[in-house]
Amino acid sequence: MRNQSIFNTLSLSEKFKWFFLGQTVSLFGSAMTPVSLAFAILKVKQGQHLLGYILAAAVLPNILMLVIGGSIADRYRRDKLIRLSNLGSGCSQMGIAIIVLAGGNPYTIFPLAIINGILGAFTSPAMRGIIPELVERKHIKQANSLLNLSRSASKIVGPALAGTLVAIFGGGWGIAIDAVSFFIASIFMSRVHIPSHPVVSKTSFMHEIREGWSYFRKRRWIWLITGAFALINAVQIGVWQVLGPIIAKNTIGSTGWGLTLSIKAVGLLIASLVMLKLQLRYPLRDSLIAVAFGGIPLIVLGQGFALPYLLIVTAIAGVGQTISGIGWDTTLQQAIPRNKLSRVLAFDDLGAFITIPIGQVMAVPLAEIFGYKMVATIGGIIFILVALIPLLDRSIRKMNPEKERFSS
Asked: Where are its TM segments located (predicted)?
């Protein structure tokens, strides 16, 4: 019973335990893929140009299908949807691993990346929307903190292990481990059963999408922050995910880059532990201030500071990212009615992620015109400023979900 004590201490349910275990296994596998795939693609001819397009091939269909995925998650069983999407993701990731291990044509990765993106569009709204069905409302923040704890731990181990595997064996094995983790996660998720079936809606599918959009656009505090993250994510992904490995290849190498990603996860881990007990009086204000620290590593990367400095600021950014993520998800999950939650979360994801493919595709062309380090530095400055802009709205600065009632 010792391994269940943390769930008992936090008054979290048995079904949440299995959900947590399934998520943890999947997260540990997925944390290996960014490093493994990036350096596998960079080995081929024109790899630095191809990398951004492959990443965009997964993100773009994900974004386009998010609203449909969110509506389906509100209409049908979220637990079954998660299990099926895990199985599908495992198959597509295994296909990518086989292509990389066999030294196949990297262009054959594109259709599998597209499949991954589509499956993710069904997974994300269901995963975020199922939490209020697994735990009581008062325990939502603790549940999110615990999930962030496993996410942080996976990002410590995954990138470092992936960097080592890339240096010794190449990138394919890390992707194969990710594929297996999806299959294992699906087994754990088979023990997760939400308490009831959704009420079968008599309205049309398009009416439900419009209903979710109406709720989203009428909440100024939601769309202001979503809009800010649209630009933040484009900068973050373009600089950190695309230019980062390219800059690292010529400076700190794959091992150093893997270590950097792992150190960021140390900050995520520390903050997740703190957030198990810490209460944010004004979660949206605190979340935006915290996430602004994420721009500092981009500046340090661009200015070419030594690895130890990059590791320090990356760890601090990890702390800020965790505080922001938990504060934002908890506020949304407490504020939005369950029967609209996945749809509204899908519109949040759609707005925040829709610019990511632009960042992925434009990062290298801009870097070749203005210089890799210049683009990284300017990107970091933009990141910080945009994160703080929503704080000009008083309702965001002063919002306290524990004291306010949100309309349905």
From this structure: 50-72, 156-176, 221-243, 255-276, 288-306, 369-392
Please indicate, yes or no, whether the overall pTM of this predicted structure exceeds 0.85.
no
**Residue 295 DSSP symbol:** G
- Tell me if 41 sits within 8 A of 197, measured CB to CB: no
- Asked whether residue 350 carries a pLDDT value surpassing 80, the answer given is yes
Evaluate whether 301 touches 310 at the Cβ level (below 8 Å): yes
Q: Which residues contact 184 (CB under 8 A, 6 or more apart)?
A: 22, 25, 26
Question: What DSSP line would sit under 58-122, residue for residue?
Answer: HHHHHHHHHHHHHHHHHHS-HHHHHHHHHHHHHHHHHHHHHHHHTT--GGGHHHHHHHHHHHHHH
CB 50 within 8 A of CB 343: no
- The DSSP H or E segment spanning 162 is helix 140-168
Q: Which amino acid is at 96?
A: I
Residue burial 247-265, b: 16+ Cβ < 10 Å; e: rest: bbbeebbbeebbbbbbbbb
pLDDT tens, 85-143? 889 999 999 999 998 888 888 888 899 989 988 988 888 878 777 887 787 777 777 88
CA pair distance 253, 236, nearest whole angstrom:
20
CA distance 360 to 236: 10
Confidence of residue 297 (pLDDT cuts 50, 70, 90): very high
Helix axes 78-101, 109-134, angle to 10 degrees: 150
Q: How far apart are CA 257 and CA 262, in angstroms?
A: 9
What does the angle CA 226 – CA 230 – CA 235 come to, to the nearest 5 degrees?
145
Residue 16 CA, distance from chain mean position: 20
Q: Which two tokens stand for residue 106?
A: 């990297």
Side-chain-side CA neighbours of 8 within 13 Å: the count stands at 5
Angle between helices 372-388 and 283-292 (to 10 degrees): 170
Domain regions of the chain by residue span: 10-398
Do 268 and 320 meet the contact criterion of CB atoms below 8 Å apart? no
